[in-house]
Amino acid sequence: MAQQGNDNKGSGLRNKIFFTLICLAFYRIGVHVPTPGVDGAAVSEFFNAQSRGIFGLFNTFSGGALEQFSVLALGIMPYISASIIFQLLTSAIPYLEALKKEGEAGRKKITQYTKYATIVLAVIQASGISTWLATQNINGKTLISSGMIGIIPFKIMTIITLVAGTAFVMWLGDQITEKGIGNGTSLIIFTGIAAGIPSGAQNLFALVSTGEIKFIIALLLVIFMAAVVAAVVYMEVAQRKVAIQYSQKLANNPMNSLASSFLPIKINPSGVIPPIFASSLLMFPSTLAQFTDVPWIRGMSESLNPDGVVFNIIFVALIVFFAFFYTDITFNSDEIAENLKKSGAFVPGVRAGKSTSEYIRFVVDRINVLGCFYLSVICVLPGLLTQSFNIPFYFGGTSLLILVGVAIDTSQQIQSHLLSQKYDSFLKGVKIRSRRVQF
After folding, report:
1. Which helix (H) or strand (E) covers residue 1, if one does?
2. Which domains does the chain have, with CATH numbers?
3. d(CA 398, CA 61)
4. pLDDT digits (tens, 9 = 90+) for 146-203
5. Residue 148 bridge partners (DSSP)
6. Cα separation of 230 and 381, whole Å?
7. For residue 174, how far is the Cα from the chain centroid?
8. Residue 133 neighbours by CB distance under 10 Å
């Protein structure tokens, strides 16, 4: 019976993984379904020419759907934007902050508002893209094949299609989170980025075959990339452990195993948010230059060349700014200090309350310096590799951080399921005997 229970639990985890893979397969199929009325070849040629702008950033997150202008061209980006906006507003608007403190019910309400905002953002983005698409051409060839789709104008059909695609991807992410394994939204982004790895490897192999890159250089490059991935994994799981002790009353309780513990603080507390914000802000002038002929905008776009020194300096400065800004908003040291005080815990040598809050904030700020250096190196790395070794793909940056972060999170969830099964099978059938005196 115990073995049968183990098998059922194991099959439950296998079913979750299988369900997740099926959902991701549907997402990848949708990436290749074209939007009605769009000339796919012309759009692909245009986006290849603009691969270094914000179009390239969005195309990476959409798994190539924007380049092909499929029904999932907007992908999950509107939901990500809405989530970030509400995460920032939660600390600025008292009503949202109160909802956050309500627990699960409040979190569901904020998620509902986020989804409404996602649809609004998708409508705005789809409207702008459809209007712009109808006016663009490449080599004298328009990007749309027809101004009317049956009896529906191209712009209206495009808006409906793209918003429906975003809603479908958002729903698919929810299904993975609820019934599969891992975070659905993160896994969708992970799948989109990972889809470009085989083509990058194929391009590198082609360059080695034609002699444009020597084999020894390619081998050293692969070893270097493996080392970088290992370093990113190490930094993403690294923690600064702040020692925590509990009051004497709790420490004397033999049932309490938390008499001496620690408060874990990630080395990179802001995650991938700073590079995403910094990239979007710096790519904006080059994107705006595609829509206008204003001389000073085009001059700004040319000066902010992604391979230039000016771009990298400003990029690093923005990463540092957003890292401290985002951490300051999302990391509430006062709340942590108050919770420690209520639970009878304290930092050795530091007074409870305000002094603890200031100490934790001091530790976080020092850690953030190391986190900013780490993010800056990883995000500037792609441009340096491209210039030095003529690599046919980007390695590093936001994409690498997302790939590693999602992979670590998903593997931890799988390990959590396996550990839960192990303890459930261990406790199954164990009879708890009463210690009361039997007469």
Report:
1. none
2. 237-395 (1.10.3370.10)
3. 10
4. 777 778 888 888 899 999 999 999 999 999 999 988 888 888 888 888 887 887 788 7
5. 153
6. 15
7. 15
8. 22
